[in-house]
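It is worth pausing here to work through a concrete case rather than discussing structure prediction in the abstract. The textbook approach is simple: state the sequence, then state the predicted structure, then interpret. We follow exactly that order.
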Amino acid sequence: MIGQRLEVRQGQGLVITPQLQQAIKLLQLSNLELEAFVEAELERNPLLSRQDVDDAPSEAASSSDDAAEMSFTDGVAEGAHSALDAPAEAVYDAAPGERNETATDAQPGLSDWSAVRGGGAMPEGDYERPDEHELTLWEHLQAQVPTARLSPADQAIALTLIDSVDEGGYLRADLAEVAERLGVETARAEAVLKVCQGFEPTGVMARSVAECLRLQLEERNRFDPAMAALLDNLDLLARRDMSALRKVCGVDQDDLIDMIAEIQALTPRPGAGFGGEPAQTVVPDVYVRADPAGGWKVELNSDTLPRLLVDKRYHADVSAGARGDTEKTFVADCAAQASWLVKSLDQRARTILKVASEIVRQQDAFLAFGVEFLRPLTLKVVAEAIEMHESTVSRVTANKYIATPRGVFELKFFFTAAIQSSDGGASHSAESVRYRIKSLIDAEDVIGEILSDDRIVEILQDAGIDIARRTVAKYREALRIPSSVERRRQRKAA
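Step two, the predicted structure:
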C-alpha cells in the first residue's frame, strides 16, 4: 500500500560549509601562498585589517601567541594536551542555515576530508593557480632531485646543496660544513654532489670554472690529459701565453688552437639560461632549537603568521549607516567571513605546531645524532598520537618546512618506511638501513673483503635487522653502488 508518513531518523553527517572548506584549504597552503591569499582577502573585505606589533592583541591573536611555542623535556611535550586538542567540530561550527550535510560512515570524531578537493562547491582562489613565470634554475634543479634515485637523506643533502647554487649555476657551499651540519661524512656529501652535477644544464653545481668546463667536456667525451692540463692552467690561457701552454699540455700549435676553440664553445655560466625570479631561500614555518634545560624547543615562525583583526568599530559605523537589505547583508557577510578567517588562521597555526611537535618528539634521535638514527614514521602514527585524522596531518605537512640544527627540511622528509627488527625490538628506518649498507660497502677496503648481498643480509640480521636479499639489492642499486662482482673486478683492475 502506497501512502505518506512522517518519520524521525538519527544519523551522522559531515558538515562541509564554505568556512570549513576555507579552513581545510588554509592548512595545506605554504607561507607564500598564505600571504597571497591573505592579501587578496584584505583587498576584498573592508572589515579586515592587519595587526601591528604594537597593537593590543585580540582574543584570537592572543591564543595564537600562546600556541607559538612548545618545548620538549626528556621527550615529553609540555602542553601537548592543551587547547590544541580542541576538535574541529568545536572550532568550525556552522551557523544555522549554512549546513550542507553529506551522509558519511566515518567514525565519530573523525572527519574524512578526502572528497573535498573534488567538490564542485569548493571555491578556487588565485592561490590555487599561481601566476605563470619563467622557470628558475633553483626550480629546475629541484625538479630533477626525485628522478635521481637518491635516498631520502641524500635528497636532503642534494636540496641543501641546491639552495647554495648561485644564479650562474656555481655551488657556493662548503661540503665539509654541509656534511657536519647534516651529520654525515664528507665523502657522502661529495657523492651526492657528483650525482647533482649530472643534472641539466651540463656544468651546473661546479665549484670553479675549471670544474664547470670539465663537466661539459666529459659529456662530449673530449676530456683527456691534455685538456686536463689546459684547465689546470687557465691563467696562462687568459694571458695568451701559447708557448707555456704548449709545454704544459704537450701538444703542438695546431692541436692547442683546436683545444682553445673547444673551450670557447663551452658555457662558463650554465645557469645564465634560466631567469625570471632569482632562487628564493626557503622560509621555515617552524623552528627547532636545543633547550638549555634539555630536550628541544619547537616554535612557530612568527614572521610567516599573518596577524589579522576584525575592525569592530568600523563594522559598527558601517552597520549603522546601512540603508537597504542588500547593504546590510553585505556588511553581515563581510563580518562573518572576517571572523571565520581569523579563527581559521589561529587553528592553522595551532595544528602546524602540534604536528611539528610530535614529529620532533618522534625524531629526536635524528636531531641529536644524525641521519643514521632517523626512525621509521608514518602519517598514521602521528595522527594517532595527536588524535587527528591522517588527511589532516598530510595537509599540514605539505609545503611546510622546519628549521633544525641539522638544516631545513620539508616536514614530509621525516616520514620514512619501517623495516622490522629480527629480535622483536624497535623497527628500523629504511633510510638508516641504507646508510648501514653504504657504510659496510665503504669499509670493504679496510676489512679486505668484497661483501655480497647475501653477506650483507647476514651482517644486518646479526645486528637485529630483518631484511631480504632483494631489498638489499634494491637499496644498493638506489645508492648507485655496483654489484659485488663488478666491485671485485674494479679492485682487480686497480
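Step three, interpretation. The radius of gyration is 29 Å. The chain has 23 helices and twelve strands.
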